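Data deposition worksheet. Section B asks for the primary sequence of the deposited chain exactly as it was used as input, without tags or linkers unless they were present during the calculation. Section C holds the resulting structure in token form. Section D is free text for depositor observations; keep each observation to a single sentence. Incomplete worksheets are returned to the depositor.
Section A, Depositor: J.P.
Section B:
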Amino acid sequence: MGTNYYLIPSHESYMVQRNKFLTSICDILSLSDPFINDYQLSQINDDFLNNIKIHLGKKSGGWRFSFNANGYKYYNNKEEFQAFIRAGRIFNEYGEQLSVEKFEEICFASNNLKDHSEYAKELNLSIIDNMEFHFGKFS
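Section C:
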């Protein structure tokens, strides 16, 4: 068992993304081919949802923080990760909001705990800037 952490955009960023999403839907609905409409609508919906709640990683008792690499879509190292989390709001899986400072404490204070190196192959693990980036599924 552990706790998952997520980043959602700032309110301002969310409204910009929402407006782009709604504009894209209106544009597609004006097309005449229903198959294209349905396919494109599902793609736009997926893109919107994937950028609204971004899984940052998981902290389990006695273990180092497991960072979700997210395919390096948002960050590639510690500096980029720290900049990224400052651009939004951080919540745990129970809906509790955390300050950036508290979240960084959870992430980086655990560096002296047990690491996942013995499971590196199974987890598709990459260590960058002393951070364990995982490419697999999180439970």
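Section D:
The longest helix spans residues 11-29.
Residues 11-50 form one domain.
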